[in-house]
UniProtKB/TrEMBL annotation:
Keyword hit for Transferase: no
Annotated function: Required for the formation of a threonylcarbamoyl group on adenosine at position 37 (t(6)A37) in tRNAs that read codons beginning with adenine. Is involved in the transfer of the threonylcarbamoyl moiety of threonylcarbamoyl-AMP (TC-AMP) to the N6 group of A37, together with TsaD and TsaB. TsaE seems to play an indirect role in the t(6)A biosynthesis pathway, possibly in regulating the core enzymatic function of TsaD.
Molecular function terms, GO-annotated: ATP binding; metal ion binding
Record's keyword annotation contains Nucleotidyltransferase: no
Cited Gene3D superfamilies: P-loop containing nucleotide triphosphate hydrolases (3.40.50.300)
UniProt protein name: tRNA threonylcarbamoyladenosine biosynthesis protein TsaE
One record GO biological process: tRNA threonylcarbamoyladenosine modification
């Protein structure tokens, strides 16, 4: 079932990420969609905080995929996070293959910005989060759903 939330501030977006993290474990794929600056990386920062992984989440502009080692997780088994920005891949499936995300998916949570239509086949199901924004406003809206 699709869920929706209005996110007035970046803190609200990060808080949603922390909440979503509670549903995530090894093998789970998260596909983030939304325009530049919609808050995909901010949401990932919240997911990382919820999972308790190590290292600061940043926009992987020059690195396509960043690995965060498992840390301390209060609400479940510790799990690593792989944060991918598929923007620069531009749908290049060979480069995507080279990232070997299916191997990561054995024991990590994999979050992919700009992954819509590109990475879904890597897992049996995925959490799709769409972020949208209004011009001249900080408010974002998130719509999310597990797709089987
Ligand atoms: N409600 C909000 N939710 C998320 N970010 C917000 C919000 N209000 C303002 N911002 C700001 O918008 C920017 C969102 O940037 P972020 O890098 O998370 O977007 P992105 O979707 O990852 O962009 P890109 O496609 O370039 O990777 C940040 O500067 C953040 O502080
Ligand atoms: Mg980003």
């Amino acid at each position: 079932m699709e869920q929706r939330r209005v996110l007035p501030t970046v803190e609200d977006t990060e808080a949603l990420g922390r909440e979503l993290a509670a549903e995530l474990g090894a093998g789970d794929l998260v596909v983030l969609d939304g325009p530049l600056g919609a808050g995909k990386t901010a949401l990932t920062r919240g997911i990382a905080a919820g999972l308790g992984v190590r290292g600061r989440v940043s926009s992987p502009t020059f690195i396509i995929a960043r690995q965060h080692r498992a840390g301390e997780r209060a609400d479940g088994p510790a799990v690593p996070l792989v944060h991918v920005d598929a923007y620069r891949l531009g749908g290049d499936l060979d480069e995507l293959d080279a990232l070997d995300l299916d191997t990561d998916l054995h024991d990590a949570v994999v979050v992919v910005e700009w992954g819509l239509g590109v990475v879904e086949h890597l897992a049996d199901r995925h959490l799709r989060v769409r972020l949208s924004r209004e011009p001249e406003s900080d408010t974002r809206t998130a719509v999310w759903e597990w797709i089987e």
